[in-house]
Amino acid sequence: MVLPFIYHYATNGPPEFVRQQARPIIYATLAIAVLVLVKLFASGRSNPAERPLHGKVVILTGGTTGIGAKVADELAARGAQLVLLTRVAPSDPFLSEYIQDLRDKHDNQLIYAEQVDLSSLHSIRKFATRWIDNAPPRRLDMVILCAGTLTPPGGRRMQTEEGVEETWMVNYLANFHLLGILSPALRAQPVDRDVRVIVTTCSSYIRSPSLKEQFDDGSWSPGVAYARSKLALTVFGWAYQKHLDSYKRPDGLPMNSRVIFADPGYCRTAGMRRWLTRGSLVGLAIYLCGYFWPWLLLKSPEKGAQSILYAAMESSLGRGEGGKLVKECLQVDFARSEVKDEEVAKKLWEETDSLIEKLEKAQAKKRAARKAEGEKAAKEREDKERSEEIDSLVSAIKKGKAKEKSKSRKKDKDRDKEKSKGSDKSDRSDRSDKSVKTKSKKKSKKLDS
Ligand SMILES: NC(=O)c1ccc[n+]([C@@H]2O[C@H](COP(=O)([O-])OP(=O)(O)OC[C@H]3O[C@@H](n4cnc5c(N)ncnc54)[C@H](OP(=O)(O)O)[C@@H]3O)[C@@H](O)[C@H]2O)c1
Would you call 230 a catalytic residue per the annotation? Predict the structure, then answer.
């Protein structure tokens, strides 16, 4: 069928219609070829690495949407035990359905969620201390930091309840705090385990203002805040590797926990959509009308997950030094020397440490004051309830007594009445006796006469 068709065209040339429309057909073919090439290029490389993950324990942030959800899906498919750190409680109906779907899809029951609001230092501490307090130390093979936030362009500077700018808190401070507390758990893993901490970075860190520069509220803008948080995260990740390496294991063997940075590239996720649409309905309408362009130029979340999966599974990344950066499933170097600047890292680490200490102390005080207030209010409520109860009891007793009194008064009255009735009767009987007596007297007199 195909060969005669080719033979026909080879001997007779293309049909008349094609000959007449040759130019438009060539242009259209070229345009389609360019589009396909652009799409393939923009979609990036696919992960070529594989690694059995059965029984491996993975803590994953941001695993419910966007790139993180695709990472969770792939890891669950390979049998990993997933601990999803989610903003909402596991009892949330959408979350429990999501987890059940993952379990059913991959026949993997080892997936569960822990509520950790990354905008709260207290929430992170509660989870992480519970994790490290476990005796014997819990198995931990991977921590994947995929959660992130951004303020859309033109948006207002948002603060967390603890008074930290939201982007800085979720993208940087939360990861610093979580890894800081989990550090003993990572260092305690047996040496035969290939332990990885995967930090999701973004190429926006390249254009961030230097961390050496003073950054105040006046220089804040959504783009700068996001880029700066990612630069700080990258600098911290690098320093964290040094912190892990400096640990002297009791067995004298080298550190087996490695930090790996993964840049997913620009993807069509909820976060990116919020950025492109400026978080407005009009923006969303324009985005949907011109959806062709994001579809063409941005990766799908699946494609965005590839570099993270590569970082999780590529065997060469589990050997040698940590602190490598993966982009398009390839090892690349950092585009900024500041990432490896020890002075910057030291200053950032110390400042962050003291900021967290200050915030945690302030929050602890607030919580204690709130607790004391709550206890006081509860005691006052209890006292009020008790006095109300006593009052009602007293009034009930009073009412009861009053009732009894009125009853006894009524009884007395009835008795008096009965008495008076009784005396009337006796009077009447006396009177009748007397009349009987006079009558009999009269009769006897009559008889005598
Ligand atoms: N998309 C891109 O083009 C792109 C490019 C480069 C780098 N990245 C990085 O890749 C990572 C994933 O990006 P994405 O676009 O997939 O993000 P996304 O769609 O915006 O999802 C962000 C995730 O972070 C979670 N999260 C946000 N705030 C949280 C909080 N306070 N507590 C707990 N969880 C919180 C979200 O949970 P909820 O579901 O509860 O909101 C969500 O699961 C981010 O670190 C991002 O910076 C993305």
Answer: yes
